[in-house]
Amino acid sequence: MVEQKLKAKNRSPGRPPRADTFGNASDLRDSILDHAELAFAVAGFEGANLREIASLAGVNQALIRYYFGSKADLFDECFRRRGGLLAGHRHVNLDRLLEISENPSVEDLVYAYLKPQWDMKYSSPNGAAFVAMQARLHAEPEEHALRLRREVYDASVKRYISALSQVLPQVPKDIISVRMAFLVGAYLFMLNDLGRIGDLTEGHLTSFGKDEMLDQLVRFLAAGLRAPA
Amino acid sequence: MVEQKLKAKNRSPGRPPRADTFGNASDLRDSILDHAELAFAVAGFEGANLREIASLAGVNQALIRYYFGSKADLFDECFRRRGGLLAGHRHVNLDRLLEISENPSVEDLVYAYLKPQWDMKYSSPNGAAFVAMQARLHAEPEEHALRLRREVYDASVKRYISALSQVLPQVPKDIISVRMAFLVGAYLFMLNDLGRIGDLTEGHLTSFGKDEMLDQLVRFLAAGLRAPA
DNA sequence: CTTGTTATTATTCAAATGAATAATTAACAT
DNA sequence: ATGTTAATTATTCATTTGAATAATAACAAG
């Protein structure tokens, strides 16, 4: 719209003077990642544009290449950064749950799985962006996207499948696996779509708060997982 | 990979002679839509490329413009064509169901909703492409994507919500609405992801046939919809 | 101090891409 | 016959874009 020049900071070339403000180890690198995350979220991989990312991050475009290599590499790094965090949280949650009791409820398990990403979404604009990024990634058929998802998430998903399988001995494990896929679909979609969901509820606008919405989702999914095979 | 020239058919310019084979009203137009559908499915809106679509469809690139206008318009038309069909099938299925009985089972309703797209996916490569396209569209945050989805699907979704609400009087209607959103998420994701789902099932590869998989999904979702509020 | 390495910018390159225009030919109406 | 409209191609245009290179400054090591 506005004919903005989108020019990066007007710093002169060359290594910048060491900032004495402390604690800024590779500050720009992170800034790039943050803005890339946002860009990928709203525009998708193809739609995002390196010039704009660079400019918003306040760096020269070539710096992206310097740190990350290609656009695809940048995307991967974005994804790994938060994805790893997420997977980590899930592991921790499961550990805790199993510590407390050998047979947690299905609801507890589902909740433990969903909560980390839920929190991430509402923790910051970047958290929300990551959720969107992920939703898009799941819709992409490319082999590369698939590998990335697997790399980041497979281990934790498998652990949850095992745990669920133990809590639901009536349901064969391969059915649990399939249901876990349903679960992922429902929650990703939902998380990404929240806010638009109101449209379906005609007049009486859904006044669910986020927490209540999460509860609803957990209840729904737990019931599905429990369904007699 | 191969340095293919991707050149369109070598027809001379000018209006083509009327084909006497009968029934080819605007043959090329359809060919464009078919190939666009495939392209959008694998590459997404931004990733798809008009030159390639034209070449695969065997037409000159300018013909796309002639028929559809811009790239965005082409996308919309793709979406409306099949989306309308789908929505239509859903309406018909619901009509039939309500004719037979005033209180169909939740399973029947869910099945009636899902089956048309399921069939579409397996009817042809283009049907599958449309499913993928749709999954991607749902992950896009753009206002435009949202409007399109609403235009094509809202009416039928609302009818199903009403029907479900009648069959499940214990569950408040706005909770049904929300659960319907979960349902859409789960089935879209699943439909698009089928085939990769096997990866989660460790050794014992999911030998679910497509029909059995649909049954599984219906059972899962019906249980979720029924869950006590 | 000199020299090499790291982090950063300015500038250039080459390709891809959506859009637009002009040309051409068949069908159709009068 | 003839002029108009419809359908199609060939060609050109302007911009965007990811990538690459060259220049520059700070810092670290000897």
From TrEMBL, chains A, B:
One Pfam family of this chain: TetR_C_30
Keyword tags: DNA-binding
SUPFAM superfamilies: Homeodomain-like (SSF46689), Tetracyclin repressor-like, C-terminal domain (SSF48498)
Gene3D superfamilies: Tetracycline Repressor, domain 2
Annotated region of DNA binding: 49-68
InterPro entries linked to this entry: Homeodomain-like_sf (IPR009057), HTH-type_TetR-like_transc_reg (IPR050109), HTH_TetR (IPR001647), PsrA_TetR_C (IPR041586), Tet_transcr_reg_TetR-rel_C_sf (IPR036271)
Domain of life: Bacteria
PANTHER family per UniProt: HTH-TYPE TRANSCRIPTIONAL REGULATOR RUTR, TRANSCRIPTIONAL REGULATORY PROTEIN
Name this protein carries in UniProt: AcrR family transcriptional regulator
Organism whose genome encodes this protein: Rhizobium esperanzae
